[in-house]
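ARCHIVE CARD
SHELF: 3
SLOT: left
DATA:
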Amino acid sequence: MAVDLSGAVLIAGTTSDAGKSAVVAGICRWLHRRGVSVAPFKAQNMSNNSVVTPDGGEIGRAQAMQAHACGIAPGVDLNPVLLKPGSDRTSQVVVRGRADGQVSALSYRHRTAALAEVVADSLSRLRERYDVVVCEGAGSPAEINLRPTDLANMGFARRNDLPVLVVGDIDRGGVLAHLFGTLGVLEPADQALVAGFVINKFRGDVRLLEPGLEQLLTLTGRPTLGVLPFAEGLWLDAEDSLSAVADGVLGRPAPPRGAQWLRVSVIRLPRISNATDAEALACEPGVAVRYVTEPSRIADTDVVVLPGSKSTVSDLGWLRSSGMADAVAAHAAVGRPVLGICGGYQMLGRTITDPHGVEATPGTAVDGLGLLDLEIAFDRDKHLGTPTSTAWGQPVTGYEIHHGRVVRSGDPGLIGDEGSDRGNVLGTHWHGLAENDGFRRALLTRLAAEADRDGFRVADDTSFAAERTRQADLLADLVEQHMDTSSLEHVIRHGAPADLPVLTSGLAASAR
């Protein structure tokens, strides 16, 4: 029987990567399992990990993951504003799924008033369609220097009268100070919306933490609604593609089914994008996927993957200056496999030209690595798509996000006419190919053969979709077992209590 619940809540965090995305996904999945109609929402995201939605737009990958947890299809309203950094100072702005210019950190401030209306419209549509909307903040609400133009944290909460829960990552250390300090620097009207705290990634006996939680309650008047334990099995669909990487290794590799491992090295480009393409490979038993940044790590690998890039020309320059380009060429020269995806695919070709100045000075032309007989030119407009086809006898789906267009190819296609298949060097513009189980098995079998890993055996029972669902359920289990869900429901239904005390330090004191 479905639970009768309606309302909304904002999950903020003391820092980036505090666990906001995971907590939102867990709450969404917990509500979905109880029959609640629920949707995630992130007003403004900054990430180069994105997906193309069925309604034809581009949103942050974390919101697509959260939509999966809700049992709904992702759409552009879930993430109406997406910033995709192309350098340390500039980002592409994606508004309701479509690229809408470049901004600097300073110039972006002049667009936030108009974007706030876009955000409000998207949230309104979601609240009309779903009973509960679980919103995710961006960065930290304690970034008080950005408060006047805030789109996703306390400014967003104030405009929409949303209760706020603040998540802190205890694995970083100092979490009680982070939670107290985050509240303390907020002005009184913002503090009034903060209903409580959540602690994430706890290891050990929670009884040792309880005295600190009691003091935090005394100091702030806010309860801690949950202490979520550290969970080893959570690593798919991370908003920061490298946040779940330990010692360079992606995921938790299961032992091989055969006598040998298949070792895959993904080059960690400075502006890497959609690195989550490698996650489906890492789900397979006996496949060890690691990120690498220097040439010596390629010398002992079986497969090299060149992933997507938000700045293909710049990252190609880094490949050369770092020595990685020579290492990739040497790897391919002895017949070992190289796989390029999107921007990485473009780098493997002969030339890249930028007639419209999408990434560089208009008219820029650079040499690629020359491992594929391929010429690329950047279009002014970004190509977005969700194609379907067959490859190697397997049905495949994927998504495309790129400015680069193939203007000439002398190699056979990988998927029909799309992509390139030159024996041990392969490439495609399609993201998400490896999420197709049948194609992934055929791909790994071929890569292992090219790498002379005769003892590697691909598993025939790995389901990437099932693994993604398992991780969503694991997040929901953490919420159900380790949060005060009755209080969580009360906050969603009724908002923050009206009598919460104000901390009289910092901005709170100056604003009184």
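SLOT: right
DATA:
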Amino acid sequence: MLIQENLTLQEKLRILSDAAKYDAACTSSGVDRRGQSGMTGNSSACGLCHSFAADGRCISLLKILMTNECVFDCKYCLNRASNDVVRAAFSPEEICTLTMEFYRRNYIEGLFLSSGVMKSPNHTMEQMYQALWKLRREYRFAGYIHVKAIPGADPRLIEAVGMLTDRMSVNLELPTGDGLRSLAPHKTRKTILTPMRQIQNGIRQDREIPLLQEHTAGFLEEGKARASVTGAGIQKAAGEQQDELLSWKKENAQPLWSQRKPAARMHVSEIGRRFVPAGQSTQMIIGATPENDYQVLSVAEALYHRYELKRVFYSAYIPINEDPLLPALPGGPPLLREHRLYQADWLLRYYGFQASELLDESRPNFNVLLDPKCDWALRHMEQFPVEINRAPYELLVRVPGIGVRSAGRIVQARRSARLEFADLKKIGVVLKRAVYFITCSGKMEYSGKLTEDTITSCLTWGDRKANWEISHQDSFRQLSLFDDFHMNVPPSMEDRFSVVTGQM
């Protein structure tokens, strides 16, 4: 492994921002565009990506690796130890310089920092910790920071970094342990899930602090009341409560990493920050191993329930290495499959669906020509049509074309008037999909046959060959060694919009 010496900061940025594009924990983008006469500004693709804040704003992040050096040899990774690629590494000071210079120029609003494993997980994580500590304490940077935790790092390091960042994520890498053992033999599910559990517990403990403070205030008020009656007890109550608070901190807070370094000594109260306040997320590579959509979605559902993740990201496998254990994918990355999984993920998180409702063992993969909500509705026509003026909210959000917002507007609007199809269009319902599944005052606008084949044909623009394959998946047909089941079809603009907004 050759580490390039004497590289300029711009050269390191080009290498390490390009190496970071495979971490799909935000919506990556970037373009080179020179300034033009009569125009204001230009654009550089290096290290820029976009993510969405909790209030819906699209924010720009500086997205880089701390180093693309790695001691692991994951078969699917561009930065694996056996690959002959140019290696580079940022120092903590360079991370701070880049972040502040980009921020001062209004290019970014935050930092997304990941890294290969340099020397060891502990060494890498401590380098990241030093960079974040300098950025927060010396440069006084209060912007958004997302950090990828390194599996196998010391728990004290995870805690220390968690107090300096807004969101942390630990990449699950592959959906199952079998896939991890075959393609990433240096990693195990235990080393990945252990920091996930630690971050979850840390976030829970952080939530308990306001409750303890509220309990403290109540205890002091009670002490004051006793003092007003008995003439004693205020100082005693305060002293007892302070002892209780210190005891709680001692029991629940681990010592921070690098206590041997005076510059690293820091207490929670000194920086006034919470532990990973924006929650944690993870990423799975889709298509590198033979798991079907049902397995992938079941894993995501379990992660949401057991580890309280904010988001699971799905990254279509890109064939950048040659290995007999890796799939060939002659049609390219399964981008449309990735989009269908993102759409199904929205259904899990906001629409009340379960993985077992969307897929099962007999039908383990999504129909790539229909979004998962339409696919589910077509397989459950016994529940439709739905009367708009009477159906409960939980049933409205299951109608294709009616999203969470439009369902809420329907419930609110029908309190004062009976809704018709023209009203639904103004509310924001996508009638192109919803018209097959709803009635207004008992009337239905669609007059054709309410069968799965007929509606499927209408929803997929009448592509007869594709529709025949959808409707006759169990029929005999000519097999091909290169049949990818249309997984290489690029996502449409409507698909992209639904993945970003979640409105299906």
